[in-house]
Structure formats: C-alpha cells, structure tokens
Amino acid sequence: MNRLILHILAVLLLWGFPAFAAEVVVVQGERLAPFEAAFHGFKDTAGVRSVERFVLSDLRGADVVRAVREARPRLVLAVGRDALARVRDIREIPVVYVMVPPSATADATGRNVTGIEMDVPAERYLSLCGNGLGGKRVGIIYNPAKTGALVQEARQAAERLGITLVVRRADDPREAVRELSSLKGKVDTLWLLPDPTVVTRDTMESFALFSQQNRVPVVAFAAKYLQQGAVAAIEVDPADMGRQAGRMARRILDGASPQAETPEHPAKTRLKVNHSVAQHLGITLKE
Fold first, then answer.
1. Total-model pTM
2. For position 18, what pLDDT does the model report?
3. Which of 10, 37, 78, 263 could form a disulfide with 84 if both were Cys (CB 3.0 to 4.6 A apart)?
C-alpha cells in the first residue's frame, strides 16, 4: 500500500504539481535489489539533507527530465543504464552515475557527468588467471566496437603481469564460436568480457563445452555464468559502489568540479567460485 501511495504522489508531481527543492534527485531505472543497495549506500555516505527519488519503471511515459529540472537539485544521481540515458542531456546540473557499464558511459561523460563504472579492472581478472589459476596464456574473444577499450586496458595489464593474451575478434556470435575453436591448445584460461556480441545464451554452451573438453577454466564477469560452466566470476559490490558514488557526490557538492572527478572503478570486488567445475578441472580456489 505504501508503495502505491508513493507511486501516486510521484506521478502527481511529474504531471504538474509544483516541484519542491531537493538537494539531490535520484533517477533509478528499476527497483532491482542491486540498484536499491547502491541507492542506500549512496544515502549513507553522501551526507545530503534531502533526496527525491524517481524510479523509471514506476513512471513509464513521464517527463522525468522536466521534473528533475523543476526540482532544481544541486546534483543528480543516475542509478542504472536507463537512468543515465534519460538524464545525460541535462547539462546545467552535475550528474553522478552508478551501476552503469562502461559501454553505456562512453559518450556520456564530460563537463558535468562522471561516476562509478560498473566494471572490474582488467588487472584484477588477469591476476586471477595468472596467480589463482596458473594460466600464463589467457584467451579473449571480443568485438572491438563493444569492448575494444577494455582489451586495450587488458593488453597493458598483461604486459605488467607477464601474461600472454591470445586475442580473437568477432563481429557476431557465430564468428565468436568459430574463433573459440581456433584457441584449442593455445590458451590456459579463457576470460569472458562483458561483450554482448560474444557472450550469449548460445555461445555460453560452446564456451562450457570447450572448457570441459580442453580442461581450460573460464573466468566470467558475473556470477550467473557460474551455472553455465564458468569456474569463477569477479563481481562488483553494489552497496559499496553506492557508497563510493556518495563520496564522489559529496566532493562535488563541496565545490569540486565534476570534470575533475574522473570516472572510477569499483573499490571493492567479490570472487565467486563454481566448486563443482573447479573440482572437475582440478583447481582449488577460495572465495
């Protein structure tokens, strides 16, 4: 009932009721648990007097950008890809984003937009591949248009760590499967990038089969792929990312320039392991 009342009040606000001033307006894509955790983490650390929140999934069709402008906040927090896409054209108010993948922020950051990238540094993955799994030859399949920047970061990290990257390019899922076959006998570990061209439901079956047949562990970017054959995944901590965004917002509210606040990687990550796959491959990993 409370949620219904809040929804009605929010709709009334968006369709013509006078807006009231809030120090920070939060635009959140959905009421997903990770988004909620990020939002509460933000509130815990930003130290703001008043927060107004608009959840896009509750307000379909509403002019959220107009409502944000009428609320005249000192800062906007965008939680999720859809939220950032909705507010990215606001230029007169600092915008901090969180829970947004790098692929969705490439054209958004600039004079007034910055935030916490929802990714894990390449060095963290490669350290797991090299030290945790003993793989000195790490295979990557990627679409340059989707994850080219991440592969460039990976090349630099691999050089520092003494790891050899075996890289293949693919412009569609079928090509990704063909390139996967070419990695047989040439890699010790496969690293799945958050690349929607390469990682699909169908290609995951091929990655899992390749892993079993060649005894090559697969490292993924999200725990859901553990159930599809990956041996390990490194995840972000949404609540901690929210706290990180809160600290960034606090600095901006205290006078720092958003442009000077460069986007940050998550400060805290979590290792998840599929122990059945690890046992099958003869690997010992601790979470």
1. 0.72
2. 45
3. 78
